Known about the structure:
single chain, alpha/beta, seven-stranded mixed beta sheet, six-stranded parallel beta sheet, 23 strands
Amino acid sequence: MHLVWSPPAWLRLAAGGVRTPRSPKTSHRRADERGAKLPPVSLDMCCASLVAARSISTTRRPIPEPGRGEVRLRIEACGLCGTDLRFYHAGPIFSGTAPGHEMMGSVDELGDGVVGFATGDRVVVEPLQSCGRCDYCRNGRDSICPELQVFGIHRDGGFAEFVTLPAKRLFRVPDGIDPHVAALAEPMAVAVHGLRLGSLQPGQRVLVLGAGTIGLMTAQAAAALGAGEVVLTARYPHQAELGRHLGADRVLTEDEASPGGLQKLGSEGPIDLVVETVGGTADTLRGAATAVRPGGAISVLGLFDGEITLNALPLFLKENSLVWSNCYGRTPDGADFAAAVDIVAKHRDALGPVVTHRVPLNEIEHAFELAGDKTAGVVKVSIHP
């Protein structure tokens, strides 16, 4: 069976080329930890600007002012994601947008009507803006809201010194945690969401395909959420080492991760849940279909390029579930982000080595070059002002 991928509205490039984002309200006010206004340190800020394919640099912009229900965040760290790389190569939806959605920072100023936060609070960000009115939003599925916008794609994100965001999208992080590690809460939330959609149960055997950041976070999250065994596939030695460090019970080489090898793995013991994190042009779903047990599930987190080929017969005969996951949501048990923050906080020391490169904002071009070279031992590149 051939599946044709049609990108959602938030991911499609604007017809006729890129567009210019709306200008945020700006101010130069600051607040101390008691909420008192302070004189500005600077009239503007440093901010990355993606203007066209493979054209990113830093510029100066006015410091934005938070609107009603918003806060201004002083960015401390922001991870560079595979989605950022895709838009870097393809070009932005909105010309001049500051990328970056894996944000960690401290609250710098509160907009009108904001309660529950104070200046100085250390937080991570669920970088979504949805309508809040549709059935999807009312059921915690903001990521499929027809009006969804993503900070770092449609609106300015975290590759900047400051950014304004809805206060309801913030999650506190413990004092003392490294900002670059705290920013891993975003990809960890992606992993938690994928595992929840795959109906992970304690004691189950989980196979994670791919050992990039999302694959590694999925291995860690599966172990933390009670998986009985976590098997991970890794392409590079440094990924395999990190996978073991993060709780994978077994790491397979590329040869062992072939469809035949995965079928053998499944015959050794039932694979209850397979999580695909590679996407691109990888032939991973064929192996997932051979490995998963009858009645088991496949959760797809990887973003595939164009058409994929999938032999549906094994899935049909085994009555498998095939689910797709694009970011995170909220359930009666709580937000995926809240669970992710808890996992990152508890495993902060183990997660430290995932952040292999820390690059200052004024070297943003170098950061994108690093992130695109997986052979150089790169896992996560993180930006800081």
